[in-house]
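ok so i was messing around last nite and threw this chain in just to see what happens. nothing serious, just curious
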Amino acid sequence: MATIINMPRLSDTMEEGVVASWLKNVGDKVEEGEILAEIETDKATMEFESFHEGTLLHIGVQEGETSPVDTLLAIIGEEGEDISALLNGGSAPVVTKEEAPKDTTETKNESSTVTIPEGVQVITMPRLSDTMTEGTVASWLKNVGDKIEEGDILAEIETDKATMEFESFHEGNLLHIGVNEGESAPVDSLLAIIGATGTDVSSLLEAHKSGALTSTAASSEEKETPRVNKETIETNTAVTEVATNNTSGGRIFASPLAKKIANDKGFNLADIKGSGENGRIVKKDVENYTPAAKVEAPTSTSTTSTPTAITNFAIAGEESTSEVKNSQMRKAIAKALGNSKFSAPHFYLNIEVDMDNAISSRKIINQMPDTKVSFNDMVVKACAMALRRHPQVNTMWKDDVTVYNKHINIGVAVAVPDGLVVPVLKFTDHMNINEIDIQVRDLAGKARNKKLTPDEMQGSTFTVSNLGMFGIESFTSIINQPNSAILSVGAIVEKPVVKNSQIVVGNTMKLTLACDHRTVDGAVGAQFLQTLKTYLENPVTMLA
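result:
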C-alpha cells in the first residue's frame, strides 16, 4: 500500500522546507534508511532518510522549490501502484514516467499549455531557506551564447545565509538570462534557459510574461537528479556571469566578496591578477594584493613669490551617500527581531554585580590542568541555576497558555560575519562551568564556520548576549522568541566602589534583563536578577 511522505519539521521554528536535492528518481527502489533528499531550512541542509521500503512513485516538491511543513513531499509504494486517488481524489490519472511524452515536457495552468522543447532546461530562482522569498544574482560567470559544460559554475546567488556558487547540471548553451547582475527576483521566477544553440525560446519567454510558465516546467522526470556538492549548497536551478568592466572595455571576473573588499580598500580590480577559474579574482587575491607605490609628479615653484590676498575659500568636503544592498540574512534578522520587538511588550531591568570574587575564583579554576573558563561561562552557569529557582522566567507565551519549560536550554548569541546566530546549550543546568566552556567554544567555532546543525540552534528557553569583550558597559537586547527573556552582559569595569563604608577600587559588571511582560512581571524579573547576582558574587555556590 502506498505511503505518503510529508515535508518534515526539522526545527521548532520551521514552517516550510526547501528540497535542495533529490537523491532518488521516480521509479527508483527505496530501502529503509536510504537518503531520499536533502531538505534545507533557514538553519542548515539536512539529509532526510526513508523509513519505508518500496518504489518512489511520486515527487511532490521539485528541487529548489519550497513547501509548507506536513504537505505532500513524496509517495512510496509498490511498483505500478495506482496513486491517482492520493494525488487528486481520483479525478485524473497520474502521468507516470513511462507514459510521459518522449520529446516534450508540458506544464498547464487554467488557460494555456506550455511546451518545452527537447533538451531545453528552464532554470528558476531557487528557495534556499524557509525565510527566503527572493534571491539576488551577485554575478554571472557565463554570457548568453556561451557553451555550458556539466559542472561549470554558472552564477553566484545571494541568499539570507551567504553568496553561493551554483553549478550547471546540464550541457548546452546559455540561451537566456532572466535576472541581471545585482537584480533580485522572487523564488521560482525565471532565472535562465539552457539548451541547444539556435533553439527558439521566444514562446517560453512569452509564457513567462503571461504567468503560464511555472517552476513545474523547470525539470522533467526523464532527467537524472543532480547531487548536492557538499562544499557548496547547490540545486539544479542555476546560471551565471561575473561582470565588472575594466578601462579597456573587457570584463573582469571577480567574486562578490572580492569586489567588496577591493572597493573597501580602494583597489582597482583591473590591477589584480585572479587565481580562480578562468582568471577569476577571489578573496585571497585581493587580500594578498599590494598596490604599487604612487609616484607624485613634482610641482613647479617660482623663485620669487608675492603675497596675495585670499578672497575665496575652497570647500573642505563633499556630501555624498552610497547604498549597500541588504543581504538575505540581514532581511531575515530584521524580520525576526522586528516581529519580536513589536509583538512582545519588552521591559528592562538593570543590576550591577561585584565581580571581585568571580575574578579571584576564575584565576584559581584556570590553574587546574586542561581547564580554561571565561566570565561568560560563569554567567551562563549562574543563569541556569537562577532559572531553576525562578521557573516563570523559563517560559514561552502562546495565545491561550503559558508554557513552563521544565528543561533549561540556554542560547548563547554569537556574532558571525553576516549577522548573528544563537547556538544552544542543552540541559545547561546539568553542566559544570568547565563543560559549559567546552561546549560554548565548540559551538561558537561551528557558528563562525557555518557548520552548525539545526538541532544545535533550536530549543532555547533563555538567551545570553555578551558584548563585554568589546568594552560595552551596558546595553539592551531584543528577546529571542519564543524565549521570555534575554540577558545582556557588559564589560567588567575597574572603578571606585564603597565597601564597609570605605571607598576602594573594585570590579563591577552591569547586567540588563529584557523581559516579555506577557509572561514575566517586574517583580519576577527582579527576583531572578537578585538570585543571579548572589551566584556571581559568591562563585563557590556554582562549583557543585
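not much to say yet. Residues 328-343 form the longest helix (16 residues).
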